[in-house]
Structure formats: structure tokens, C-alpha cells
Design a protein that fits this description.
The protein is α/β, with parallel strands linked by helices. The protein is 37% helix and 17% strand.
């Protein structure tokens, strides 16, 4: 062991303590995927800010500490939730009134009010990458829209259909009675209006990989959960993303800490170990 690695192994600094915790996951067997995956998330309904910087910076510190302790390769993914529906009109964009008709459409289906990119989601994603590149962060960018629509998420979505009752049991235990009546882990995207629908399921067919529901207009519709026709509610999405990517470490603000057991349970239900986490103020 080199002097530098020995010092890292003994360091009391928090990034090294976190790195040692991650390394313990692989004491017996190295990761099957060949690397340790660190993840950060970004909500592109607004521009990146100091909180975005802090999350990526802290995660990068842990990743660099891990590299001092181990020769296992590492990757850092910045995942943009750009398939989320736009739930309110941003107040700091030009021509904001023109966005009203696009409420509840995925951010990557909302026109860019600045007129520079394919969509509002694409604009904010570009600002994120420019922001991170300015500080020289080493990362890989993943768009939820691309992840869902390309089929990269299909296997986990089909598994979520198979495990629907188990995941619903986890989620319903965390919800108030009124919310329980209408909740579903799946959010269909209407093929005509393009809007993300918050509607209960009438049936979930594990054999066909489909869901059946009534639209806001009362019309019954059946959609496959694959191919970007459906997205997951944000809490199940957290756990499913961890399972799909094989995430080993993610940190987030304390506002997420009460939901961590939910994310972990869903990740395990979907067949993967939950990652290590770290929460901050």
C-alpha cells in the first residue's frame, strides 16, 4: 500500500469516511458492472443553482476519495428528470403566458421560451452542462426522456408491472387515506395531448406489460409501460433508477431523508441492492 493510500485509509475527513463505506460493499466481490456508480439528480424546471453545484461537488469529493482507496473504476452520472410534467409556469422566463397551454406536458415537450433549444427541458439541460463544465466536473449526463423513450428503462418498468402490488404496498403505507384512493406508481403520458396524467389504474397487466386507466375526459385507455408511454411517480422513480443503473452512492438534502427507506425498499423489490447514501443540510 502506497503512503498516499495508507493516509487515505486512515483519514477522518468525511469524504474518505463515505468512500470507505462504499468500498465495504465490494470487500468480497468487485461490482459486476465493472465500476462504482455515483449519481446526482437535477430537476430541469428551473436553472441550475448553488444547490446543484453543492450536490455535484460533494459527490465528486467522495468519488475522488474512493479513487485514493481503490483501483475499481468509477463513474459519476448527472440524471435530469426532464420527463416530468411542467406543473407551474416559471416566473423568470420570457413569454411565460405562451407556456400555459403546455402545463403537465413533459419539460422536453414544452417549447423553449428563450427560443434557443428544442424545448424548455433541453434549454435547462444545456445550462446544467454548461454550469458543470465551467467548474471542470467529470460526469456523464443522462436525460430521463431519452432513458425512458429509448427503451433503456423498459426492463425495470416491466419488472415494476410484475411487482406492482408490492411497490404499491410500500407507497400506500406512506400516504394519507385520501391520497391512497387515487394513487398509482405509474403516470401515463396521453398519446394525443402529450400530458402526464395523474390518474388511478383500473388494471395492471403483468403478462402484457400494460396499464389500463380512464383519462381526464373519462375515456378508457390501455398503454404499454415501455417506450416512454408511461413514467414513474417520483418516489418509485428514485428506487427504480437506482435499480436500472446499478447506483452505488447518492447524496441529497435532508428533505429526502425521510423517503430514503421507501427508495431503498423499491430498489430491492426490483432486484437490486440499495446504494449507500449521505444526506446534508
Amino acid at each position: 500500500m502506497s503512503d498516499l493510500r495508507e493516509e487515505a485509509a486512515q483519514s477522518k475527513a468525511w469524504p474518505f469516511e463515505e468512500a470507505r463505506r462504499i468500498l465495504k460493499r465490494f470487500e468480497k466481490t468487485p461490482p459486476e458492472k465493472g465500476y462504482v456508480l455515483f449519481e446526482t439528480g437535477y430537476g430541469p424546471s428551473g436553472l441550475p443553482h448553488i444547490g446543484t453545484f453543492g450536490e455535484v461537488a460533494r459527490t465528486s469529493m467522495v468519488m475522488r476519495a474512493f479513487r485514493e482507496l481503490s483501483d475499481i473504476p468509477t463513474r459519476l452520472v448527472c440524471f435530469s428528470d426532464d420527463l416530468d410534467g411542467m406543473r407551474k409556469i416559471p416566473s423568470n422566463v420570457p413569454n411565460s403566458e405562451s407556456l400555459i397551454e403546455h402545463l403537465q406536458r413533459p419539460l422536453t415537450s414544452v417549447p423553449d421560451p428563450f427560443g434557443e433549444y428544442e424545448s424548455f427541458g433541453h434549454y435547462n439541460n444545456a445550462m446544467l452542462r454548461r454550469f458543470l463544465d465551467t467548474f471542470g466536473f467529470e460526469y456523464e449526463f443522462i436525460s430521463a426522456t431519452e432513458f425512458y423513450r429509448s427503451g433503456k428503462f423498459d426492463a425495470i418498468l416491466l419488472r415494476a408491472v410484475e411487482k406492482y402490488d408490492e411497490i404499491m404496498k410500500v407507497m400506500l403505507a406512506s400516504l394519507r387515506e385520501e391520497r391512497q384512493q387515487t394513487y398509482s406508481i405509474f403516470l401515463p403520458i396521453h398519446p394525443e395531448t402529450g400530458r402526464v396524467l395523474y390518474v388511478p389504474m383500473k388494471s395492471v397487466n403483468a403478462k402484457d406489460g400494460t396499464i389500463t386507466f380512464d383519462t381526464d375526459d373519462g375515456d378508457e385507455m390501455t398503454l404499454p409501460v415501455t417506450g416512454g408511454n408511461v413514467k414513474l411517480q417520483w418516489k418509485p422513480d428514485f428506487g427504480a433508477r437506482w435499480a436500472a443503473l446499478g447506483v452505488d452512492f447518492e447524496m441529497y438534502g435532508k428533505d429526502h431523508s425521510t423517503n430514503t427507506p421507501i427508495y431503498d425498499k423499491i430498489c430491492r423489490i426490483l432486484g437490486q441492492p440499495a446504494p449507500e447514501h449521505f444526506s446534508y443540510e
